[in-house]
Amino acid sequence: QVQLVESGGGLVQPGGSLRLSCAASVSIFDYAMGWYRQAPGNERELLATIGSGGTIYYADSVKGRFTVSRNNANNTVYLQMNSLSPEDTAVYYCNATLLTSWGRRYDYWGQGTQVTVSS
After folding, report:
1. Which residues contact 112 (CB under 8 A, 6 or more apart)?
2. Which of 6, 25, 55, 63 could anchor a disulfide with 110, C-beta 3.0 to 4.6 Å?
3. What gap in Å lies between CA 100 and CA 30, rounded to an integer?
4. Within a 10 A sphere around the Cβ of 15, how many other Cβ atoms?
């Protein structure tokens, strides 16, 4: 069982920055890692992913403002968020996905961290 613990959320003013961290309880070397968010009344939204080989994807809504990175040595993935706006207010979740060679998929989620952008 993989446990993911997000941190770094909080209250920030519009235009500000935050850096989220997601610490895993196991080696993330073979996992694709991702960040999602969910605002009240909305579906969970994929923001960014970083594959085990380093391939990165960004949703259009965050491209150019958010940067995802990973440190396999300390089993942590990060989301640097810049130029934040009130529309970025949501609970942010970390995801770890493992695709096995025999076709099984395993998904794990953190408990989420609240990000509130307000003046």
Report:
1. 6, 38, 91, 92, 93
2. 6
3. 9
4. 11
